[in-house]
Design the sequence.
């Protein structure tokens, strides 16, 4: 696939992901947060994610500024990127749908927060993180640029490493033995593996 086609496919995937998230973001604002953790860290991580998954990729898509870091895309990269982004979109939709009003983009719990262990959550504890790993893998394959393609993996990888243990600790404190039992019967990111 040529670079323009890859850029278009990435943009379609990106816009589709936001079409999934926006209704849940609106719903999220209607419910008051009762527990919020690491507010300053969360703000820094959002800036990092914005740079790696929005600003630099779209700087590459819509301008020549990052073109010195281009490389020739392989034949299979575009097809695999589309497959990964499709999987990411389905997983992102399913995770949001199953969480409903319990979803939050930050480390916080809302009024009436319940432990969701059905739907996709009966197999994976953190399917949204899985979706973002797939999304960033797709970004790396669809944007043949050493900066714009890989910066999402780096930004999200750092976010994941800094956030996942805090999120699980918050859920353990909130749901206690119920969450501990849930952890025993599910995998964190990939069912049946990790």
Sequence:
């Amino acid at each position: 696939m040529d670079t323009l086609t890859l850029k278009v496919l990435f943009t379609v995937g990106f816009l589709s992901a936001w079409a999934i998230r926006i209704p849940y973001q609106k719903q999220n604002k209607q419910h008051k947060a009762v527990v919020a953790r690491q507010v300053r860290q969360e703000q820094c991580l959002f800036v990092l994610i914005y740079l790696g998954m929005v600003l630099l990729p779209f700087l590459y898509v819509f301008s020549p500024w990052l073109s010195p870091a281009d490389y020739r895309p392989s034949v299979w990269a575009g097809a695999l990127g589309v497959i990964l982004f499709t999987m990411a979109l389905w997983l992102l939709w399913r995770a949001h749908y199953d969480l409903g009003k319990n979803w939050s983009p930050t480390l916080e719990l809302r009024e009436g927060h319940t432990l969701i262990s059905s739907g996709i959550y009966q197999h994976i504890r953190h399917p949204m993180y899985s979706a973002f790993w797939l999304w960033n893998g797709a970004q790396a394959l669809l944007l043949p640029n050493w900066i714009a393609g890989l910066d999402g993996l780096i930004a999200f990888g750092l976010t994941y490493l800094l956030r996942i243990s805090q999120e699980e600790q918050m859920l353990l404190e909130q749901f206690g033995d119920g969450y501990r039992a849930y952890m025993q019967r599910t995998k964190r990111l990939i069912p049946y593996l990790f």
Q: What stands out?
A: The two ends are 33 Å apart (CA to CA). The mean pLDDT is 92. The CA atoms of residues 83 and 167 lie 29 Å apart. DSSP finds six helices and two strands in the chain.
